Amino acid sequence: xxxxQIAGEVWLVGAGPGDPGLLTVRGRELLATADVVVxxxxxxxxxxxxxxxxxxxxxxxxxxTARSWAQEKINAVLVDRARAGARVVxxxxxxxxxxxxx
Length: 102
Hints:
The chain is an alpha/beta fold. The chain has a domain at 24-62 and 69-96: Tetrapyrrole methylase, N-terminal domain (Cobalt-precorrin-4 Transmethylase, domain 1), CATH 3.40.1010. The protein has 2 helices and 4 strands, in the order βαββαβ. The protein has helices at 25-32, 71-83; strands at residues 9-14, 36-39, 56-59, 87-92.
């Protein structure tokens, strides 16, 4: 950033097909160093154990039958936290690039 503040990062991590053991090594590394994890309901909850105990966990839903955050609001949180210098992981169930979602 130009004002001397260090910009954070946003990482998109796919949680895989459901079995927590199938998370990639890199995905686990990113979770382990995250300041903020933005997670949807399709990611196995046990994966959050890989995040530091003081990480901010933001549940954004993404359920067809329950209230979910709008994508624009999710994007705003990702950008806001990164601009504040945080390492942010957006943890999505499955492969985030299937059907062009990534």
